[in-house]
Design brief:
The protein is mostly helical and 271 residues long. The protein has one domain. It is 80% helix and 0% strand. The longest helix has 41 residues.
Amino acid sequence: MVLTSGHPWRKPVMMLMAIATGNHPPHESSYSTHKYQNADSFISSQRCTYMGISELLSDSFGYANEGLIGKWMRWIILIISSIIFPLIMGYSLRVMKGTTPAPEPGDYLGMFIDGIKMIIIEIVYMIIPLIIAIATFSLSGGFGSIAMLGMNVDNPLAYFGMLMATFGLSLILFMVVAFIFSLFGIIGMVRFARTGSMGEAFAFGEITNTIGKIGWVQYIIALIVLFIVLFVIYAVIGLIPVIGGLINLIIAPYIVMVTSRYYSQLYDMGA
């Protein structure tokens, strides 16, 4: 039987013959091969992304384990530093310098000053998200609802509902904008740690280049994964009655060491 060009069985028969002989039929096979190669490349790139994040987490937790487990005096000093908040921030800067193994706490005045600088950098990065949230709250009638609740109104529940809706909208907007700014702020803080210059924390051109080299998608996924891991840890501890707050204080140095190392390694991926 001759399969003419218009015969309905021509295409599937030719494709089966091509598969059997190892040759590709024209047009269709080249497209299919290209399509599946792209799919394989996509799956491979995603696998590399997740493996990279897995390695980041493993390295960061391993770094903290090595830096604190069995080194109880260092851990106690860092717990005290967590109470004197700028001190622990100053220590996190030393970790973000890429110091390996974990550095000993010392030069406490220098740590305190560096911690103050880190706090200032974080505040500057949060100014715009805070302004946007306050403006949203104000323009959507949040302050007006508060004023009305302070008066003897006929239907206070209506104003209370409006207040809650406005507050919720403002909070969501703040969190979204704050997360966007934190993408730059995290790399900015590592740049400050590496250079010692606060100006480098706001070098947005260099920060953008670094994130671009990491890969925007991989960078965002890596941060989301870290935040989820930390959320789970704190959520579990929060379920522990009475001593949950004490446990939070005890593990604070560990969490700081993990996150600081994680940020440092992320930065190095784009350096």
